[in-house]
Amino acid sequence: MKALYIASTGMAAQERNVEVISNNIANMRTTGFKRQRAEFQDLLYQAYRRAGSQTSDQGTLVPAGIEVGSGVRTVATPRIMSQGSVAATEKDMDIAVRGEGFFMIQLPDGRTAYTRDGSFERDDTGQLVNVNGYQVQPGITIPDNATDLSISADGIVEATLPGQTAATQLGQLQLARFVNKAGLESAGDNLFLETAASGAPQIGTPNVDGTGNLMQGYLEASNVNSVTEIADLIAAQRAYEMNARVISGADEMMQSTTQMR
């Protein structure tokens, strides 16, 4: 009976949906996290009677056919790249992006990754790095004896050095934008990688051409809405239960047929 297999695809799809929702909920407190959403498509149909087929020699046509689908599948889990709320941290090297841009991070293998997590530190050489020690691009060195570190909205990094009264510019942060942000590949550690779907990064100065401005002493929170996720979880659970009920019903029908024989 086809209903068994059709309902099983529904159960598998809702299981994947629950996995996506659970990952969103697990990362509610992850800095710069972007929630995902499961998207589905129906599978192929078997046509028992095609709409528009001729039913007589006079040219009359079937107004509506008979088609039975074969179920559902998960086709994508795109990230919703909406802006998360920003929260003050009072830490000089915490930076939030308010806008479209991503920070650029150089990985140990030489590739460039992209992130919305601006919780940066200074390593033993004074380089600005992320929490894993990967260097922020373009590289910025903050001397050990520097004071009054300042990062402007357009990414200019300044600090006061010993023996000087005026601030010294140490570097300029840049941001990357993508035509299709949802096409970025998740690499874990709050990092994303460029793909053919995302397009090449468009690198620019903060506060210019829609890249977004920087906020020193703030971090961007996850954009997960707990109420929405719980509502989606309940809906997915009910859909799973209904598909399981279809399997149970199909089994009872097959049992009845067997008993008749």
Walk me through the topology.
Layout: H1 2-26, E1 39-42, E2 45-49, E3 66-69, E4 72-76, E5 86-88, E6 95-98, E7 103-106, E8 112-115, E9 121-122, E10 128-129, E11 135-137, E12 147-151, E13 156-160, E14 168-172, E15 175-177, E16 185-188, E17 191-193, E18 202-204, E19 213-216, E20 218-220, H2 226-260
Antiparallel strand pairs: 1-4, 2-3, 5-20, 6-19, 7-8, 7-11, 9-10, 12-13, 13-14, 15-18, 16-17
Helix pairs in contact: 1-2
What does this structure look like?
It is found in: Bacterial flagellum basal body. Keywords: Bacterial flagellum, Cell projection, Cilium, Flagellum. This is Flagellar basal-body rod protein FlgG. Belongs to the flagella basal body rod proteins family. This protein is an alpha+beta fold. The chain has 2 domains: about 1-30 and about 40-75 and about 225-260, no CATH class; about 85-220, no CATH class. It has helices at about 1-25, 225-260, and strands at about 40, 45-50, 65-70, 70-75, 85-90, 95-100, 105, 110-115, 120, 130, 135, 145-150, 155-160, 170, 175, 185-190, 190-195, 200-205, 215, 220. The protein has a 3-stranded antiparallel sheet, with no helix packed on it. The chain has a 3-stranded antiparallel sheet with strand order 12-13-14, with no helix packed on it. Strands 1-4 form a two-stranded antiparallel sheet. Strand 9 and strand 10 form a beta hairpin. Helix 1 (about 1-25) packs antiparallel against helix 2 (about 225-260). The longest helix is centred in the C-terminal third of the chain and has 35 residues, at about 225-260. The two termini are about 15 Å apart.
